[in-house]
Write a structure and sequence with these properties.
Elements lengths: L1 H6 L5 H11 L5 H12 L4 H11 L8 H9 L4 H11 L5 H12 L4 H11 L5 H16 L4 H11 L5 H12 L4 H11 L5 H16 L4 H11 L8 H9 L4 H16 L3 H16 L3 H37 L2
Length: 321
């Protein structure tokens, strides 16, 4: 109670919001009422929304309607969507209907899609597909391609099967390889098994069209742990096309844990297919790549193989300095 009282004397609204958010999980029910009252006095909408969102999961049921009403007064649509997202898992059916109506009035397509997506799983089953479709329709109208891809990627793991084909078609029409790869990677695990490898391959191909090396490296790094075994050679080859050593090392290193999931026999096959690519590298790049891939050498041949590789590198350096 003393800590909360001290918090209520804080004049800086952003600081007050942070303190209320930090206190929220620790306050007993009787003090949550006071914390909610303090949050509602915050004039800055972003700060007020942050405090309300932090308090929402901890409030007794009797206070949820008050928070929902407070969310309605927030004009900033991003902040309103954040409060709705925090409230969604707590709301009873009657208040969910009010929250849904509120989400549907959000003008910004990205924030409306996010709010609808958060509410959908908590609605009655017979209503969920309709609301998922609304969330998808909102996402589809986002003009900025990266924001469009972020919205689709966020939706993909949750959409019912009948809407996934629409997401796939929209994604394949995107011009930016990074955006396309991002959504395809989010979508692939949720497609029928027969389609998954094809879509993972599309995601990898899209990543390879990215011109900026840092961006391409980041996308390859994100893809590597998810790819099926039959695409790992292509992923390693794609990583090795990166000219900048740091970016190449990051992308290669991201693939190593996936290689360790393979059987020894399969890993030998993958390694044999990688060797021609490795051997075509400059000496400096080859040594850099081998450093990252040393765990694979040890997995295949034990410490002896790593030592013999080291000896071979030394010998080549002596023969051809």
């Amino acid at each position: 109670a003393e800590v909360l009282a001290a918090a209520q004397t804080i004049e800086d609204e952003e600081h007050l919001s942070d303190v209320l958010a930090a206190l929220a999980p620790r306050l007993p029910a009787e003090l949550l009422v006071r914390a909610l009252a303090a949050a509602q006095t915050i004039g800055d909408e972003r700060s007020r929304a942050k405090a309300l969102a932090a308090l929402a999961p901890h409030l007794p049921a009797g206070l949820l309607a008050e928070v929902l009403a407070a969310a309605q007064t927030i004009e900033d649509e991003r902040s309103r969507a954040e409060v709705l997202a925090a409230l969604a898992p707590q709301l009873p059916i009657k208040l969910l209907a009010e929250a849904l109506a509120m989400a549907q009035t959000i003008g910004d397509e990205w924030f409306r899609s996010k709010a609808l997506a958060v509410l959908a799983p908590h609605l009655p089953v017979e209503q969920q597909v309709e609301v998922w479709a609304e969330a998808l329709a909102a996402a589809q109208t986002i003009e900025d391609e990266w924001s469009h891809s972020e919205a689709l990627a966020a939706l993909a793991p949750h959409l019912p099967a009948e809407l996934l084909a629409e997401v796939l078609a929209a994604t394949q029409a995107m011009s930016d390889g990074g955006s396309r790869s991002h959504v395809l990677a989010a979508l692939a695990p949720h497609l029928p098994v027969a389609r998954q490898t094809e879509v993972w391959a599309e995601a990898l191909a899209a990543a390879q069209t990215i011109e900026d090396e840092e961006y391409r490296s980041n996308v390859l790094e994100a893809l590597a742990p998810c790819l099926p075994a039959e695409l790992l050679v292509k992923a390693l080859t794609a990583a090795q096309t990166l000219r900048e050593e740091w970016f190449r090392s990051k992308a290669l290193a991201a693939a190593v844990p996936s290689l360790f999931q393979l059987s020894t026999e399969t890993l030998y096959i993958v390694w044999q297919r990688c060797l021609p690519v490795l051997s075509s590298r400059s000496r400096r790049n080859l040594l850099s790549d081998l450093k990252v891939l040393t765990p694979v050498i040890v997995r295949l041949g034990g410490p002896t193989a790593a030592y013999e590789t080291y000896r071979a590198i030394q010998a080549v350096g002596q023969w051809w300095p």
